[in-house]
Amino acid sequence: MIQIQDKTKCCGCEACVNVCAHKAITMQEDERGFLYPSVDESLCTNCRLCNSVCVFGSDKPVTNTERQDVYAVKNKNIIQLKESTSGGAFSALAQWILDKGGTVYGSAWNENMMPIHIRIQKADDLPKLQGSKYVQSQIGGCLSLVKADLREGKKVLFSGTPCQCAGLRAYLKQDYENLVCVELICHGVPSARFLRSYLDLLESKVRGNIIDLKFRDKKRGWGALLHATYKKTSGTKKHIYLSTGESYYYYYYWGGNLYRPSCYNCKYATTQRASDFTIGDYWGVKNAHPDFDTKLGVSVLLANTIKAHDIIKQLSNYLYIIPSSIELAQRENGQLVSATHHNRGLDKLWNIYEKEGAKGLDKYYSRTHRKTIFKSKLKRKIPLWLKLIIKHIR
Fold first, then answer.
1. Distances from the Cα of 314 to the Cαs of 52, 89, 240, 260, 299, in angstroms?
2. Average pLDDT over residues 379-383
3. Which of 126, 263, 332, 394 has a beta carbon 3.0–4.6 Å from 188's, enabling a disulfide?
4. DSSP class of 6
């Protein structure tokens, strides 16, 4: 049976849970909220299927790259572009699948503002999957639903972190022509419980219940603005905006702190990818492709397989597409080169969190990053038009 002795070798993809016909495996939280497989020995038959699908924990490198071309892309649908984190590459691919009567799987917020993978079949539900969640999404029983859709002949788009996409492929044990896997350029993932404790703290400050969360709102352009919508007891909806330095969760996320242990040992942080497509923000695109309008974001899109190249040819009605190169994309996307570096101060932050919770970590951050918080508040209050003038003068 599967036993996780070294936490750096489990990415939480849940392939082992989905492959177990006897339901002997469940995902259980550790002291930091990360999910790991736990086996009920009374149900286990020692068939070892769980070990056979554990691709992240194996020493064998996993790659699906057959031929790789790189593009700078932007969604032609302005509504989808505005709701997307960067250039709307995912929503364009999802719309293409939905237009062909297919199904799309991706991460969405549930009623408790926790990220879970869901299945959609209509464009009206696409906004649920748009936007970065910056936390590990629970796969649940999605992998078995994907297999059922594929066997029925439906086109399926599955999106997730590289390890989640690799977990799906290992679970399926064969390639399906009607499956399209889209992975993110992933920095790493905190635990859902860690996020929930932060939201609880934020709710206590605003005295309301958070009902929506956008980590990359475009109200002030393409960047990093956290937008939380909350409801007061009166039923009134209100909004709060925070820049990177105003939120310990946001700041520590971008700093590479408090990720799952496996994220610092990620085998997918390289140009060799596990999925048909790889998508992310095209940081540095203004220098790489100065003629591309970047106000509302641009995505970098890696086509890694022959299947992906065939699809690219069909996306001209959905995307503005400019050929680029992996060398240009790598310049400001470090996870196309190597995994996030393990920060020296990581253990100290976890110790504070485990002893004092979100309040303790918030207090520590407020005390040690006063200048960062002040500068971030000041920067957020500068109007977008003035920011653009300042940037142009530079």
1. 36, 13, 40, 37, 18
2. 75
3. 263
4. -
